[in-house]
Amino acid sequence: MLQHLLGDINVSSLVIFFTAFLALYYWYTRPKNFPPGPRGVPFLGVIPFLGNYPERVMRKWSKKYGPVMSVRMGREDWVILNDYENIQKALVKQGHSFSGRPDIPVFTQINNGMGLLTVDYNDHWKMQRRFGITTLRGFGVGKRSMEDRIVEEVAYLNDAIRSHNDKPFDILGVLSNAVSNNICSIVMGRRFDYDDERYKEIMFRLSR
């Protein structure tokens, strides 16, 4: 009987079985001392369950798993912080330990390991940061003149928000205009009106 059953099992079936077993074992096994959290489904993780409001889903999960939890996003494990105390502890009190960036091949290929936003925290990053701060200070960043420009732009931002007369609207575009105008005031020495057609065209092309 046993020989008959074993005879029906070929090498391909064994390979498929062990591959599936190892994949599931890898998927549902967490690193040592890793925060708890939902695992989702193989290969996709929790992505199918996030819906249109992932922040609400994460908040709901945090009530079950705690303020520090983990989720599987595709093939990667993410650690999610859901309260002020842990965010401050990680990003402020232990900022140097959490200042790294993931190794994303497409960014590495584009910027050749240079820049500030997408490269890992190391001596090279520190050198570029010092150079960036020194250069930006030459444009007025950190000085009273820059503060006055920001305050002026905030006034325009408030006017744009009030123009909607307490009706709901997507604030992302208005905030993008305000931030971009601060950059324009540093680089070009001027700001643009939010209704300027040329400015709107530039913002549209940048957001694509």
UniProtKB/TrEMBL annotation:
UniProt-listed InterPro entries: Cyt_P450, Cyt_P450_E_grp-I, Cyt_P450_sf, Cytochrome_P450_fam2
Pfam families, sorted: p450
Keyword Transmembrane: yes
Record keyword Zinc-finger present: no
GO MF assignments: heme binding; iron ion binding; monooxygenase activity; oxidoreductase activity, acting on paired donors, with incorporation or reduction of molecular oxygen
SUPFAM superfamilies assigned: Cytochrome P450
Regions crossing the membrane: 9-28
Keywords associated with the record: Iron, Membrane, Metal-binding, Transmembrane, Transmembrane helix
Cofactor list: heme
Family: Belongs to the cytochrome P450 family.
PANTHER family recorded: CYTOCHROME P450 2U1, CYTOCHROME P450 508A4-RELATED
Protein name as annotated: Cytochrome P450 2F5
Species: Ciona intestinalis (Transparent sea squirt)
Recorded name of the encoding gene: LOC100181554
